[in-house]
Design goal:
It is built from 12 helices and 12 strands. It is α/β, with parallel strands linked by helices and 323 residues long.
Length: 323
Amino acid sequence: MERYKILVTPTASFGKYSDAFSRLKSAGLEVILSPYSHPLKEEELKEFISQVDGIIVGLDPITPSLLEEAKRLRVISKHGVGVDNIAVEEATRRRIVVANAPGTNDDSVADLAFAFVLSLARHIPRACWSMREEKWEKFVGVEINGKTLGVVGVGRIGRKVIRRSWGFDMEILAHDVFPDQNLAQKWQFSYVSLEKLLRESDFITLHIPLTQETRGFIGGKELSLMKRSAYLINTARGGIVDEEALYRALKEGIIAGAALDVFSQEPPGSSPLMDLENVIATPHMASDTKEAIRRMDVVSAENVIRVLRGDPPLSAVNVVEKI
């Protein structure tokens, strides 16, 4: 294979638990590592983008203006699943293949989503910090046995969350634009309207992609439909939830609490949500398990290798006329 140059931006995790670097180097690729420990900003990416033929990217913004300078770029491989940070349409216009790694982090994200259910129900983070402050407070929670779990988006991750709920005898209400009634019958859950799900669920977990249609999907109107005792969980993408409306709903007791792994701006900085005791916040870590990182490494590396070899990637996001 010709000596192509590859930029790898998720340097904190890539190759730490896998042989991904060896795969790239064995394919004759020259690997350039981002010198930054954080997701690169557009200006930082511009330092490299004109020099490389491929990029393995995390949460870094691959914008239309950035792609104007990517004269050599042939493939963008997402180290993960969601591609809302990549200008896919512009990449397609420039005949740049965009690929991702679906199915690699499903279990990890589902684990965290359900961990949030338990943490919200029993106030585990608050109790932990209370103990660190040498207090001996009591935090009265609720059982999740028999409660109703609302799952918005019954794709790979949503399905994994449903399966995890079985051991707690939870009733499942689901909402999806493409309902699979055979699955619902087999797994004994019900597809309902979004309004019914919001009104009747005790815990609501979001598992939909961020698109133009889903931006602000959960806003003030939707939050007002929820039970005052209900909790919202978001491990999908921050932009799906109107954070100003969520803050008001949490502050005013319209809903009981929320657990957020994702934010409209990351890191969220001085977001007022961070000041609320009824919010659990984590740093976009749902897919950060050794097993998921290992799988994402391998798939994202193979996507680059295949495209530069002239073959289709393992999982293409767009269709390019000629590679």
